[in-house]
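Review form for a predicted model. The reviewer records the input and the model, then writes brief findings.
Reviewer: anonymous (R2)
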Amino acid sequence: MKKFFPVYVRVPLIFFIVFALMEYFIDSGDKPAFVKYPMVSLFLFVFLFILIAIEITLSAVNRVMYQLLTPEEKAQKELEESLSFKESTWFKNLMHKLTKTEPIEKEGDLLMDHDYDGIKELDNNLPPWWVYLFYICIIFGVIYVVRYDVLGADDQEMELKKEMAQAKIDVEEYMKTAPDLMDEKTVVLLTDAPSLAAGKEIFMTNCAACHRADAGGQIGPNLTDDHWILGGGIKNVFHTITNGGRDGKGMVSWKNNGLKPKEIQKVASYILSLQGSNPKDPKEAEGEVWVDDSAPKTDAAAATTKDTTEVKK
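Model under review:
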């Protein structure tokens, strides 16, 4: 084996296997274990030193043992080392254990009495690897039938459905607290002063050029009245800012121009806080009056009932 795995292959291979195992089993967070924990680096250094020392020692012992061999033993050893991989003794022994093949000299003992057009049949035993694999398949089949057909365990399709359902729940829970993954379905209106102040700053930087600093409208529409081109409310305004206005004449998509979902939420909330602020010389209303269908409806008019005792004429 040393012929096929020389020292310059064995030492790095063993070292990197140990290194990979330590990195896998040692929890070091976002840093490599040998960087976060100096003792790991020290251990790897000592291990490499010992590994090299063992190889040097074994090489020296082999040289000494070779010098102690007789000329015939030296010739035999050199012959074995000159053999190819498939001709080596250990490989032949391994293949014989796996196949249990009989030498060709004993072929006459294995011949069966019949033949077909001169084709003779040998009574060879099945190779052990095939027999063992067949037994393993039988055992696996019995366990499979008992587990899934008798005990009713979840099959792959059912496991996939459960995992998909759980994944959907996990994603929805994560979306509730992940600002950068917010969309128009999960966004909520912000009313706290710090968020509105941040939204105002974003508005002045990116929106005031088209909507005026007081949001009264210039190139863009007036944002302080109750008319909306693409719908009002936090979800519609968030969607419009994120994806842009009407094709060809609306504003750009701000998700592609540097604003994150959390920033869009803040500026949308600030815009809605300006409703009814009545800026000076506002732009003429555009779009339609938007009514929030989800808001509770109240009837300001007094209910009237008809007097059933009224005299009919």
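Findings: The radius of gyration is 41 Å.
Further findings: Strands lie at 111-116, 119-122, 227-228, 288-289.
Recommendation: see findings above.
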